[in-house]
Amino acid sequence: MNSATTSAPLRGGAGALARFLGWIQPRGTLTAGLAITFVILFMGFVAPFLYHVDPYAIHPDHALQPPSWAFPLGTDELGRDELALLLSGGLATLVVALPAAVLGFVLGVAYGLLSGLAPAWVDKLLMRLLDAVLALPSLIILIFFASLVTLNNTSLILLLGFISWPGLARLVRNETIAQRGRDFVLAAEQLGASRFYVARVHLIRSMAPVLVVNGTFMVGDSVFALSALSFLGLGVQPPQVSWGSLLQDALDIIALDPWWLIIPPGLLVFGSLIAASLTGQGLLQRWGNSR
Amino acid sequence: MIRMIGTRLASSSLTIFILVTMVFFMVHLTPGGPAYSILGQKATATSVAELNAKLGLDQNIFKQYAIWWWHLAHGQLGYSYLLNRPVGQLIVQYLCNTLVFYSVSIVISTVLSILIGLVQGVYFNRWPARLIGAFQLGFYALPAFFVAAMLVLWFSVDRPWFPASGIVNLRELHPSLADYAIHLVLPVTTITLLTISALSRYFGEAVHEELGKDYVRTARAKGVSFPAILFGHVLRNALRPLVTILGLSFPYIFTGGVIVESVFNYPGLGWFMWRSALGQDYPVLIAIVLLIGVLTIIGNLLADLVNGLLDPRASYE
What we know:
The complex is a heterodimer of chains A (291) and B (317).
Chain A: H1 3-6, H2 14-24, H3 29-45, H4 47-50, H5 82-117, H6 120-134, H7 138-146, H8 153-164, H9 166-180, H10 183-190, H11 195-206, H12 208-231, H13 243-252, H14 259-290
Chain B: H1 2-29, H2 34-39, H3 45-55, H4 61-73, H5 87-122, H6 127-141, H7 144-158, H8 177-211, H9 214-221, H10 226-248, H11 250-263, H12 269-278, H13 282-310
């Protein structure tokens, strides 16, 4: 049995999803991924400023209406415009999820490089610590810590960032150890380069494709994790809406059959994860072919 | 074999020890602390100090940490702040519901995954396998809360076939087994749809890989029929990776469980963890984290043991 199957999770993030894409090998993966990414970023950062409808304005006479010309995606139980809520919720989701992914990325690279370049016993210790963090699924740890802190954008970014690094850290550590013995690194060391210089100039550059691809996956995972947390009421806090909390709100009144309140936020979370894994897998294919 | 189990247990215990220690100190070093969350808006400086003294939270944190392990060694997990009952008792109660839910889900997903995986492995890279592959991809990426919500919408709201929440009809004084069963339909379907995608995919891969091996060619050359090879040899060999994945994925099923149980208001461990997190009930949260850690280790060990039975060579690795 190869190592790929042993480490394969039953439910994984964007990275595991990309392996599925690799199996069916669709054409135009990168284009599709970038296109969906563009749509989602546009919805999050541009559309809220183009669609001049107050998401928090209530219209009690038009409560719970299915999509119409006046309300393109219908209204919720207070008569708020669902499209405006979705756009506002998208911005709220992305302003937390993107910085969190960046934080997790930086932490993962730093921890991985440190562990890979440090003496063997430090490496062992750091890896054991990493195992402890990885022993539990990240959502469990997230729920746990989310209940401890006051939830706002800053704490959520820190929380998501500090939970998301271990996977990348292990990858970077393994890459570092693999690269460390190669000629160009040895040559640089012989010429008197410091460890920090070698890490900065040689190691990071040589593993740049791996870093970019996995960074892409982390963005998708971050959106996904934040949405799950918000769905559970432990993410973006009301009155600010987010994709996850919109779904939870719709679930409270599900007996009234509000399909227009459930499908759009669900598809957006799904789309974010798909976009990240299509883009990452597309980049992998492209760089894999050019080598 | 026994040595392997010993080594694994030792290294896993160390992992759990680090985890629990981190969790303990994180909880107790947060500003405010449990007293604030119990008293809520009624908190005053005096009442907080009083409660801290009563709960032993005013003592040295290392002493508290030692006391906590001492109690743990004696099987005491503390009292729930919110429900004022022993944590152990509460957890057993919710764990039973969860175990029913998961055993049913895992059995159904495994059986279905084996069937789908066999089709996919046999027709590898042809249209039936590709069609299945597209579905697997879709369900792998769908968020659990979205799948659950859509199922409720279709099969509970639009068509009143199955109940959308709870474990049993509360109006019944003595609920029948059928009542329990019908409440399980939608949650189990959700978990099954979510786990089956990856599980059947990995199994299909394994079947395909096995079909290409020398022993299959030899058997065919000797005139053994294809069904006999498939069910007599390939199935058994391809089950090994499946068992490993099932064992390793135990905590991930549980993660999906938190979401699914919260959607369906199913009073299992995931639901309990969710409610405790919203109510900042730390003794319960710490105990659940510990329990999941232990269950993860048991899951991994069980996978190794079953693999050892399926293929005796594996236990010598």
